[in-house]
Amino acid sequence: MDEILTPDQWFDLQGRLKQKFPELSESDLQYEESAEQDMLRMVEYKLHKTKVEMKRIISWI
Asked: Residue 12 and residue 5: Cα distance in Å, rounded?
């Protein structure tokens, strides 16, 4: 997850994460250019997942 996601890629991933994890809110998944890593760390924290677990989740989605 060290790569930067484009807004379109994030929009697609956002929808899939919201389906899989309904506890995530719109504000949790708000895309801000150049802040992807901060946002992903916040999602990891909210879901109680490690970075490795999040990489797996994203790769499965």
From this structure: 10
Asked whether 20 and 57 are in contact (CB, 8 A), the reply is yes
Query: What does the block give as tokens for 23?
Result: 């506890």
Backbone angles phi and psi of 51, in degrees to 5:
-60, -40
Q: How many CB atoms lie within 10 A of CB 2?
A: 8
Closest-CA residue to 53 (of 7, 21, 19, 9): 21
Extents of the domains making up the chain: 7-60
Say yes or no to pLDDT of 14 above 50: yes
pLDDT at site 1: 46
Number of H helices, E strands in the chain: 3, 0
